[in-house]
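ping. complex inputs:
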Amino acid sequence: KQEVTQIPAALSVPEGENLVLNCSFTDSAIYNLQWFRQDPGKGLTSLLLIQSSQREQTSGRLNASLDKSSGRSTLYIAASQPGDSATYLCASLGSGTYKYIFGTGTRLKVLA
Amino acid sequence: GAVVSQHPSWVICKSGTSVKIECRSLDFQATTMFWYRQFPKQSLMLMATSNEGSKATYEQGVEKDKFLINHASLTLSTLTVTSAHPEDSSFYICSARGAGIAKNIQYFGAGTRLSVL
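pong. complex structure:
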């Protein structure tokens, strides 16, 4: 059974700090990995999608990397702001199944 | 980018009633739709996969008679929670993959929060 794990489960940082969220996956042959943001009681907002052939993607203050061989992805958030407070989910798209498997999420709180 | 719309965004119902949730692809034909469920403070779990015009394929442990999925058109899939009970209270999210779109691209709806009293 393929699994996706996210560490840490929760993180609290002061405003302005750079931070890294980690995602590990067991399927080394994934098609892509996607990072989402979810605000309390809300749906998913796609942040970054990294195809299996790519090593990283950037959008504004966000940078996501992908290392298929080690089964890891990281989401780097630069100069964090209180508005970044949310739960961040990563999900891997499985080879052959085309089904997303979601991680357990990292609850981020950025303190003003 | 492609848009997937879910309706309603929030629904409250009495125990024993049935609730229908709609998932629509607004600017593409969704050949495959996926339904996920998210319990409080947990991650999303895939419930079922539906291909247009075919019966849905349910994941292990998901009751097909309780969660009825219909994907009768290329732009609409519905999830009906039959005889809902409080333990069915959850956040339900759909995603869609379309004709002419790479198989490894899915678009997610905003989700529907179901509260069963």
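The radius of gyration of chain B is 13 Å.
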